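Anyone? Bumping this.
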Amino acid sequence: MTKTITVRYFAGFREHAGIDKETIAVEASTAADVYKKLQHRHGSAEPLGHCKVAINDQMADWDATVSDGDTVLLFPPVAGG
Amino acid sequence: MRITADRIDPDKLRNELVDAAAGAYVGFEGWIRNHNEGEQVLRLEYEVYEPLALAEGEKVIAEAVEKFPLLHAECVHRSGALDIGECAVWVGVTSAHRDEAFAACRYIIDQVKVRLPIWKKEHYVDGHSGWVNCERCAEHGHTHPEAASS
């Protein structure tokens, strides 16, 4: 079903999208659906296993369910240290 | 776990861990080097999503404390623009004996590199720049085959 989701982009994803967040209506059940549906925004061909996701400021699995009103944070491959 | 935009002072951090019960202190400093994958690096920038970098860093430290008999464990990571030679990350642990101090320090830095939402953009001598992919994230991703295959 269509849900209203706020998506936040970080690092390379943000640079590709040209914005750091947006609220969209998207047909998605899981965080993975959101990542795939927004491929044209973040521009990433990285496999999901290389990236991370958080929902409402909690680290989440890609198969976590997204609900109407959630904020989904899309993280490109991390490189701390 | 701390995130700071200020210069890291490893000596000061080390002194905060001094404890009469400690027989071992192991510290790790990650420095900015002037080359990466054949490119000459001029400087770099760390982008940190602080709320989750702190939460995930605290989790890593708590795991280390659970796995190893430590007295103290702490980690500090820089954010913002850094020059060559600067300290980007510091880990310090103390314990009664050296084996667990070495192992815990290694555990913390390895986990911090692959789990915290921190990104590094390198600026090269020839004028271009690029986001760095952690060399171990692919390997880490393979522990989640259902996601990696998507």
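Late reply, but here is one note on the structure posted above: The helical segments of chain A are 11-17, 31-37, 39-42.
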